[in-house]
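Throughout our pipeline, every protein is held as a single compact record rather than as scattered files. Such a record has a labelled line for the sequence and another for the backbone structure tokens. This encoding replaces a full spatial description with a residue-level series of whole-number codes. For reference, a complete record is included directly beneath this paragraph.
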Amino acid sequence: MKLTLRQRATWLAHLFKAVAYQYHRDLGRRLAALLPEDGVAIDVGAHAGQHAKLFAKAMPRGTVYAFEPGSYALSILRKTLFLHRLANVVVVPCGLSNEPAVMTLSIPVKKRGSLGFGLSHLGAERPDREAVHEEVRLVTLDSFVAERGIGRIDFIKADIEGWEPHFLRGALASIDRFRPSIMLEVNEQALPGRPDGKEIFGILEPFGYAIFKTFERDAYRMVRVDRYDGPADYVFVPEAKAHLIGQ
């Protein structure tokens, strides 16, 4: 991707923040019991690596697979992981969906010309935003697991701007086999053509997960719910592990 002078300057700022800061520390503490030291985590929409860093440090003898299709985010993610010497993170330069495909990733352009790469998205165009575009490759988690011979998955995090239902449909065999805990961003504003997050809950309902709504502004406090309860990050946990949330 060719960057303007402004975008090159802000790339340096984005890299500095990714390397120098660790966001979501409270979240990491609340999820710690779900992240075994030798576990396997799947980070879908790894962005600049904030969650990948958390998971890698919590699982020093484990592996984090960080899926990120966008070249701008990838350039920051790889340098961040290298500078933090996190050799247990495997960067996978593609996205996850319900079937293999090549699609257009849209990266919003902010008013001053920098890239809002945290809001990069697949699918329906957003007419209210200027964006740059690139072609990216998509695979399914189920096919990736089979090809790599992955024998366990303990935790999945997905924050992919409304593409979560597509990802989940390509991961059903892995979810059924491994019963990982799953953290999903559920935001109806990022779900094109869908009034709310009930579709996501419906996909996961057959697995009998305990569901926790997170309150990011309250140190990621987690409250158990039995249905979709408005936009938030939700954590789906096997019932046998529900007591571990927040410990």
Q: What stands out?
A: The longest helix spans residues 5-20.
